Amino acid sequence: MSRQHLSGNLRLGYLVPEFPGQTHSFFWRELAVLRQLDLSPDVVSTRRPAGRFAGQDWATTAQALTTYLAPVSISAVITTLGELLRMPPRHLAELIHVAGAAASAGAQPEGAGSRFRAVSTQIGWVLMGARLASVAREREWAHIHVHSCGNSAYIAMYANLIRGLPYSLTLHGPLSDYGDNQRLKWKRAAFGIVITEGLQREIRASLKSALPGVIEVTPMGVDVQEFSRDEPYMPWSDEGPFRVFSCGRLNPSKGHDVLLGAVATMVRSGADVQLTIAGEDDSGGTGYRQDLERLTTALGISDRVQLLGAVSARSVRSELSRAHVFALASHAEPLGVAIMEAMSMGVPVVSTKAGGVAELVEDGVSGLLVEPGSPDLLAEAVRRVMQGPTLSRNLSEAGHRRVEASFNYRKSGEVLARLVRASNAGLDSHEAFWRQVDNAPLVTRRRP
């Protein structure tokens, strides 16, 4: 695979599972900011995304720049085993202890088979951690940042235990979404980033002393220049269909079924509504998408709904420029980059108040929020936008101001760069870091 070496003053690994995916535009923008700040982020991922539906203009370039930990070549197996063989006995003992504790927490109580699967799984993550450590040594990384608290966090944790590689985590949603052993994953991290105040409260209550010394709240953001209008937003004029746009991967958590129910309710009442949804399911169109297609047929609104599949940011911008309202019916939405994009474009937003959306949208000011799971409530809010041109304009203007002031995509990259540099401030060079790792008597927890 051809790769491009990225220059910069401080080299770090940047781990995103199954990169690039259809919702990964934020990571691609953050990488650009890190490079502008004289860091050299080297993208690494667990494996290539399943299917060919990333839908982004930059996806091919991103894959060429990404090192995938699996599958592995013969030479990669040799270097991975070499990392394990370099470990001093005391480091190895700690690794075995931690992996055993992780397996015990992941095993179900009903039998030996569950224990065997849990142990086998942790052995797999240990090997991936050794593979990551070997890549880090080859590229002379001083740090690795992980945009996940799931299995990728295991990989970074084991790389830390094997070679002392400092790592950090970003939490993008509730801890329950990311599996077991959160205390183990967080206790060795140099620092942590969470995207909402609500998530910060959750981890402080749940993880307590296992948290690293520095936790910062840094929301994701959008490029307000990219998501800007050529013409001012115009409310519906009673001519032609009222255009509703939604964007999000096709997954039950996104509440697309609720949105379809809301549209069906409006159509039954005589409203001329057209719904367009951008996004694809995790099976490339052969999974939950088919459930939604069957539901549109059952509701009698197949002629009112278009499922675009995974599309580029350019296509999303085009759809937003035509839309009268953006609607998202998520049952759980940590924050909502798609909502930010709509607000940046001055499209009135109707969303559920699930998760951290209320930290982005002020109900009645920069958007309308309803309780999740109710097609009738969602339909009522959408109808308010449809029938209220003054309300539509006010929401459009306030939403744009809100994103422009507080959700610029550069902020997350600037915070990450600052924290990485602070975490590695005691090292004069990459070579000094790796000499320190090789000579360290014990694997220790690094704190800023």
Describe the structure.
The chain has 448 residues and is α/β, with parallel strands linked by helices. The chain folds into 2 domains: 10-220 and 409-439, Rossmann fold (3-Layer(aba) Sandwich); 242-406, Glycogen Phosphorylase B (Rossmann fold, 3-Layer(aba) Sandwich), CATH 3.40.50.2000. The chain contains 16 helices and 13 strands. The strands form 2 sheets. Strands 3-2-1-4-5-6-7 form a 7-stranded parallel sheet, with helices on both faces. α3 crosses α5, α4 (89-106) crosses α5 and α9 packs across α13 (375-387). The longest helix has 28 residues, at 112-139. The chain starts with 9 loop residues before the first strand and ends in a 9-residue tail after the last helix.
Total beta strand runs: 13
Domain tally = 2
Question: Overall pLDDT, averaged?
Answer: 90
CATH architectural grouping of the largest domain: 3-Layer(aba) Sandwich
What is the CATH C-level name of the largest domain? Answer: Alpha Beta
> Any idea of the CATH topology of the largest domain?
Rossmann fold
In the predicted model, the low-confidence regions spanning at least 5 consecutive residues are 1-8, 440-448
